Amino acid sequence: MKFLFDFFPILLFFGVFKVAEMNEQGTLTLVNALVGSFVSDGGIKSDQAPIMLATIVAIVASVLQISYVKLRGRKVDIMLWISFAVISIFGGLTIYFHNDVFIKWKPTIIYWLYSGAMLVAQFGFGKNMMRQVMEVQIKLPELVWTRIGIAWIAFFFALGLINLLAAFVIFADNTSSWVTFKAFGINGMLIAFVVVQTLFLSKYLEDEKEEQA
Q: What whole-number distance in Å separates Cα of residue 151 and Cα of residue 118?
């Protein structure tokens, strides 16, 4: 459930884009009705409408995410605030300039902010963010925690580069393929990384069970 909640805006973005793509003219009419008076230079093109509608929905979904957490009386995770801020800024620029360049940069900015925050926390303040998240579930040697922190820093940085390569080189002229890659390719890499990490840590999980027995 937590996984679906975290990826709620991404899944909606993908779904809305794909549906809108099948009826660009109808989507253009809807987008003009929603934000036509707020965009620069007017004149939204029909092929720009699907990404704009998907971006609008993603921003609204992020607002709903934070509102849901607040209504339940829980603290909003810093990562959720970062995602909300970036989608609002870069999504807003995409809508205002009706240009998908900004929304294509959004995943990279988020991943690099994660990477940078973890880097500064670990080597500037001696706080391993992954340790703070995972230590409740597993106890590890200090060196292993350090390696895990560095691995996540490098992984998030690499994801940012991969997104730029996909958005502006591999799928430079095909926004639809980039949207699919963003939803399944990048998130697939994230899941695969977590699986590999779990396999790497399985030894320590087994040792901990033996100690408890």
A: 11
The two three-digit tokens of residue 143, written as one number: 């060196």
Residue-wise pLDDT for 94-144, tens only, equals 999 999 999 999 999 999 999 999 999 999 999 999 998 888 878 888 999
Cα angle: 27, vertex 171, 112; to 5 degrees: 95
Structural domain count of the chain: 2
* HEC sequence for 146-199: HHHHHHHHHHHHHHHHHHHHHHHHHCCCCHHHHHHHHHHHHHHHHHHHHHHHHH
Kindly report the pTM of this predicted structure. Answer: 0.89
42 and 83 share a domain?
yes
Q: Same domain, yes or no, for 118 and 52?
A: no
SS3 for 69? helix
